[in-house]
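User: structure tokens for this one?
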Amino acid sequence: MRKTYLWFLFAVVGLWAAVVGNAQTPNLEPNAQTPAAKPPSVTFDFNFPGATPEHYSIAVESSGRAAYRCDDPTRSDAKAGDPYIVKFVVSEPTRARIFDLAKALNYFHGDFDYRKTRVANMGIKTVTYTNGEKESHTSYNYTTNSQLQELTALFQSIGATLDHGRQLTYLYRYDKLGLDAETKQMEADAKNNRLAELQAVQPILEKIANDHGVINVTRRRAEYLLSLVKSNPAAEAAAPN
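Assistant:
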């Protein structure tokens, strides 16, 4: 499917719907579409009061379309409870791995939370598989299941990328000097394999890299992060036009 067609589809997507309890998680389908006609999707929801961000959700469709939503009242860019929303396309290897892991985990039927000993609060994670009118999910603070650990780490890496993008967008508009520390941290996270799907934040990185009003060291870091996208054919294929 051509990228231009994918982004046309995004233009007609409805915003959001509750999926697990009262948590707000991404809904990637047009409102007029019946549940039976919706493609399968996997959603990751993270809720940890006191963390930054306190709550976010990521939904990935079997087509590769994806959405990120951050509901954090402590955000500097928050407006009267408005969520921060980004729609993007995940790369094919990431999409395939997410759905392979969901299948291996029996589409989240079962209890994967570790309870043998007391474990510190790491935030409540909920993964949900939706296929038509069928839905299954599981919630956990910590798990020893290696496949669920891998899925969690993958979603958290995507979430870290999108949260950097949120902060860069705010700083670029209101505090360009603050971009230096943010891009420095983002560069370090990338080098330590703590980020995934960098093409999702390519637009703001390009703005920074091409803006001569931004200090050179910050522009160079943005260029480095963009080079990671360009050197990855799968990421580049999923990048927005």
